Amino acid sequence: MAVRLDHVQVAIPQGGEGQALDFYEGLLGLTEAEKPDGLRDAGGVWFAEGLHLGVEMPFTAARRAHPGLAVDDLDGMAGRLEAAGCHVVWDDRWPGVRRFHTFDPFGNRLELLAVA
């Protein structure tokens, strides 16, 4: 039996879709995906890369749990995020893997890694 990860959901506050699109699509370069008809009324945003942002009430940011996003130009992404006012924290505790952590506009932690 084969198992593969289909998507990861991260919580956002109600009404946060615009900020989410600005950050995840505008800064990170993810591609918005259309949500199925039966799920649109719940709010949130889906991305083709397998990241779903769902409205959670009450909202609590994930400060430790996080998705890991592999990017082609890690240094360029770090610079882009810093220029937009995002805090970038480099982490060298995983030997042989270049990565950093940042936070979305809602305080959710994200890990960005260099493509192997």
CATH class: Alpha Beta
- Give, in order, the helices and strands: EHEEEEHEEE
The number of distinct structural domains comes to: 1
Proportion of helical residues: 10-25%
Could you tell me the mean pLDDT?
97
CATH fold description = 2,3-Dihydroxybiphenyl 1,2-Dioxygenase, domain 1
Distance N to C terminus? 27 Å
- How many beta-strand runs? 8
What percentage of the residues does DSSP assign to strands (E)? 25-35%
Q: Could you describe the 3D structure shown?
A:
The protein has one domain (8-114): 2,3-Dihydroxybiphenyl 1,2-Dioxygenase, domain 1 (Roll), CATH 3.10.180.10. With 116 residues, the protein is α/β, with parallel strands linked by helices. The mean pLDDT is 97. The chain has 2 helices and 8 strands. It starts with 7 loop residues before the first strand and ends with a strand. It has helices at residues 17-27, 74-83; strands at residues 8-12, 32-33, 45-47, 51-55, 68-71, 89-90, 99-103, 109-114. The longest helix has 11 residues, at 17-27. Helix content is 18%, strand content 28%. It has a 4-stranded mixed beta sheet with strand order 1-4-3-2, with helices on one face.
Show the helix and strand layout.
Layout: E1 8-12, H1 17-27, E2 32-33, E3 45-47, E4 51-55, E5 68-71, H2 74-83, E6 89-90, E7 99-103, E8 109-114
Parallel strand pairs: 1-4, 5-8
Antiparallel strand pairs: 2-3, 3-4, 6-7, 7-8
Kindly summarize this structure in a few lines.
This protein has 116 residues and is an alpha/beta fold. The chain is 18% helix and 28% strand. The model has no long low-confidence stretch (mean pLDDT 97).
